[in-house]
Amino acid sequence: MVELLQKCLKQPEQNAELFYFIEDAFVHLDQADEDVVANFPLFFALHLTVFFGFRIEDNYAPESGVLDLEEGIFTSVYPRHAHYLEGKPAEITSLLLKTMQPAELKEIRLNQASRRQLLQAYEDFYALHLPDFGKMKSLPVLKELLS
């Protein structure tokens, strides 16, 4: 989460709402149990985007179950590019977008492979929308450590 913030916050500027969001997130993370902590980076990554002027619109429905990461919308049509999620990962993304309080994260049951897939997709989402975002170094390290 810290690396994500470092990659997003390039220019120092005052933003009280962003500060309070980050502060609140880390307080909740410190107080959370294991089930919440496991899904917290996914929650944080999805909800942080709002402060940078882009987000995924939560218009998920079973008939529009393809998440186009370039457009940030769920659609029924496969995009002409490789930046999309479908099936369970798209549905889980919708659930995470609907989650407003970190304590609700314990209701979303994911295994390690699902979390990795979603983190990779969310990294791609950021890279598509933030110039010079690049690649995160912590994701491959975590993958190796947790394997």
What is the count of helical runs?
Answer: 6
Q: Would you list the SSEs in sequence order as H and E?
A: HHHEEEHHH
Tell me the number of strands: 3
Q: For the CA atoms, what is the radius of gyration?
A: 15 Å
Strand percentage lies at: 5-15%
Mean pLDDT: 91
User: What's the shape?
Assistant: globular
Arrangement of strands in the largest sheet: 2-1-3
Helix content: 40-55%
Number of domains: 1
Q: Whole-Å distance between the termini?
A: 20 Å
Low-confidence stretches: none
The helix/strand class is mainly alpha
Please summarize the sheet with the most strands: 3 strands, antiparallel
Assembly level: single chain
Describe it for me?
The protein is mainly alpha-helical and 147 residues long. The chain has one domain. It is 52% helix and 6% strand. It contains 6 helices and 3 strands, in the order H-H-H-E-E-E-H-H-H. It has a 3-stranded antiparallel beta sheet with strand order 2-1-3, covered by helices on one side. Helix 2 runs antiparallel to helix 3 and helix 3 runs parallel beside helix 5. The longest helix has 18 residues. The chain is globular. The mean pLDDT is 91.
Topology:
Blueprint: H1 2-8, H2 16-31, H3 34-48, E1 66-68, E2 73-75, E3 84-86, H4 88-98, H5 112-129, H6 138-146
Antiparallel strand pairs: 1-2, 1-3
Helix pairs in contact: 2-3, 3-5
